[in-house]
Design goal:
Layout lengths: L7 H7 L18 H14 L13 E2 L3 E3 L3 E8 L7 E8 L4 E9 L8 E4 L2 E6 L2 E6 L6 E4 L8 E2 L3 E8 L4 E8 L5 E5 L4 E5 L6 E7 L10 H8 L3 E7 L6 E8 L3 E2 L5 E10 L2 E10 L2 E10 L6 E2 L2 H5 L4 E5 L2 E7 L6 E4 L4 E4 L7 E8 L3 E6 L8 E6 H5 L6 E2 L1 E2 H5 L2
Length: about 400
């Protein structure tokens, strides 16, 4: 979803309040006449005439860099002196950390688009078209789209673009078939506020249930008044059929605590069949928090052990669409909780320009940021996840093929 279109306060609240009023730990939503009618109405609004209208794979949120098993791809803009702006598709070969430009196209691309690996190609979206570029480089197949399509999510078959419609407090979207370029419109359930892709074959939605329809969120006072008594609902959503499965509901602004604060939740991701949430409350001048997990149906809530259960998890890192790392702390006392082995790794030597993890790549590698000046990243490097968590800084810097060929 183009969350940058939504007011910052709205986004903050939309990601936070997910706890039932009767408990400090979320529970499945009770099946009431109102919720049953709401689910049925939403399903009727979004269901297509044919079930399973298209295949859905492992849905993931797109980053500005995307990795295959062998390489990392990203788009970058270049402005030749006195020339036309050029958008390049860059490739970093993970075997030798060599970076090369495998495709370039002219055009006024003010916003660097995301890329989507698809089979043996990489799809680049620019100039109202999809350029399907061979992963090894070469001539691209061009599929005109007729309109701007800027995907935020993808799976093995398709890419998805969602846009929040202010006047109607509605999220509209489209699914693009990466093989044919065909677009399928998607209208999500009413008052969908956030969309999450967590490596499953369904999206997880956060939507608001209100007594009256939400007014235009740009009319902030009226909008806020309606939200005071709103309920946040988490639903699994199948984009191919429109089917909804409600997990649980919660007061939009969180659950009242004995000290007067409100406990709020925000989704971190999913791994091993469990959803992970950060919780936090404001106490005095500070914010405290931790992390908990639950089953995919909203039951079996459990606190995470040790540091991740008692501290805020500020950063998350996914691998193949599934949550892998939770990261917290501050410079000099950073830690990483690896969901693959359930261990916490202290990383006091990591700074923003010395090994900061940017992306989990390949099969078991991490791309890290490196630099020579405070707060200035000048390059990236590759290292295995095992060595990185063991504290090694023996990473391989990314080098340009043009530099390799210089005498």
């Amino acid at each position: 979803m183009k969350t940058q279109w939504i007011p910052a306060l709205l986004l903050a609240f939309g990601l936070s309040a997910c706890t039932p009023a009767a408990s400090t730990t979320p529970e499945p939503a009770p099946v009431t006449e109102q919720t049953a009618e709401s689910a049925a109405e939403s399903a009727a609004e979004t269901a297509t005439e044919e079930a399973a209208a298209f295949p859905v794979g492992h849905l993931r949120a797109l980053c500005y860099r995307e990795s295959t098993a062998d390489a990392v791809y990203n788009a970058a803009a270049a402005q030749p002196e006195g020339g036309i702006p050029v958008l390049q598709l860059l490739k970093v070969d993970l075997a030798d950390a060599l970076r090369s430009s495998v495709f370039a196209v002219e055009g006024e691309n003010w916003e660097i688009p995301k890329v989507v690996p698809y089979e043996d190609t990489v799809c680049l979206f620019a100039n109202d078209a999809m350029y399907r570029v061979p992963q090894s480089g070469g001539e691209a197949e061009v599929l005109p789209l007729g309109d701007t399509f800027a995907p935020d999510y993808a799976d093995e078959y398709s890419a998805y673009d969602f846009v929040y419609n202010y006047p109607d407090s509605r999220t509209d979207g489209a699914r693009l078939d990466l093989a044919t370029g065909a677009l399928t419109p998607l209208q999500l359930p009413s008052q969908t506020m956030s969309i999450y892709a967590v490596g499953e074959d369904r999206f997880l939605l956060l939507r608001l249930l209100t007594d009256v329809p939400l007014p235009d969120s740009r009319e902030w006072e009226q909008y806020e008044a309606v939200c005071q008594n709103a309920t946040a609902e988490y639903d699994w959503y199948d984009p191919a059929t429109g089917e909804l499965e409600t997990i649980w509901q919660a007061p939009y602004y969180g659950i009242q605590q004995p000290d007067g604060s409100k406990k709020r939740y925000s989704l971190l991701g999913m791994a091993g069949g469990r959803l992970y949430f950060e919780w936090f409350t404001e106490e005095g001048m500070g914010i405290v928090g931790g992390a908990e997990s639950c089953a995919a149906d909203g039951t079996d809530w459990q606190p995470l052990p040790g540091k991740p259960g008692e501290n805020r998890c500020t950063w998350t890192f996914t691998q193949n669409g599934s949550l892998r790392w939770l990261m917290g702390g501050s410079e000099g006392s950073l830690w990483i909780y690896d969901l693959a082995d359930g261990q916490v790794y202290d990383m006091p030597h990591i700074t923003g320009t010395n090994g900061w993890p940017e992306l989990l790549v390949g099969r078991d590698q991490v791309m890290v940021a490196v630099g020579t000046e405070p707060y200035v990243v000048s390059n990236f490097a590759i290292i295995s996840i095992e060595d990185y968590l063991a504290g090694s800084t023996d990473w391989t810097p990314v080098r340009d093929t043009s530099a390799e060929s210089d005498p």
